[in-house]
Amino acid sequence: MFFLQETYAPLLLERKAGRIRRSMDAEKTYREVRTVFEGQDRSWQAIMTKSLKRPFVLFACEPIVQLLGVYMAYLYGILYLLLTTIPSIFQGVYQQPAGIAGLHYIALGIGMTGASQINARTMDRVYVNLKNKNGGVGKPEFRLPAMFPGTVLLPIGCLITGWTSQAHVHWIAPDIGIAIVGAGIILSFQCIQTYVVDTFTLHAASALAAVACLRSLAGFGFPLFAPAMYNALGFGKGDTVLAVVAIIIGCPAPWILWHYGERIRKSSRYTQP
């Protein structure tokens, strides 16, 4: 809060214009040195109205937000489903006491933390490398490479977790699956977040709010049907259903954006700088 620098483009441009006007003849330069944002209604009522409406407009009108929002919602739903079913796996299947069963959340933490740290350190390097190969011109699509393994790791982790639990394999096996699920989720999360920010620039907060709203609803809804699903199908078939849906929704997403993302972005008025 106290040490982060201001990054909001309209405010930075207004400050720059103000410095230029103060350094020159005010009467002469006031009409000449102005930003495109000056003259707009900056009252709190207008700002609040735009800010509250824009995320829903983006989700209704932007294919990128719709595609990534649905997939991120599914990722968030699986994450919360996993958070609520880990106790039932290790207490119900492996007959472990609550204190020991709770330690298996460490597997999820290892998967998410490890993958996020690796991706955070490599994402910018990959972006710069692809930018240099593209003649020094960067694209939001250059944020997506880590999403390709992420969409593959998620269903693999679901299958390992479900079927090893169903077969009563040693408890380390479902822990490995849980860690892989966590890695797949966080890789896709980071790529989606950075892609949305790079795509919508000035309206990035509204775009992130749009996908966050949908994912929060999924995080609320998924744990509600999880007990009934696992009671009816078991952990093996239940997680297979989750894996198949993850493949259908997730695997095409980075491929579509990699090949057609630029064309989709150019047709949007909200992605223009």
TrEMBL record:
Regions crossing the membrane: 56-83, 103-123, 144-164, 176-196, 208-229, 241-260
Gene Ontology CC terms: membrane
Protein localization: Membrane
Membrane topology: Multi-pass membrane protein
Source organism of this protein record: Rhizopogon vesiculosus
GO molecular function: transmembrane transporter activity
Keywords: Membrane, Transmembrane, Transmembrane helix
Protein's name in the database: Major facilitator superfamily (MFS) profile domain-containing protein
PANTHER family per the UniProt record, alphabetical: MAJOR FACILITATOR SUPERFAMILY, MAJOR FACILITATOR SUPERFAMILY (MFS) PROFILE DOMAIN-CONTAINING PROTEIN-RELATED
Main localization, broad class: membrane
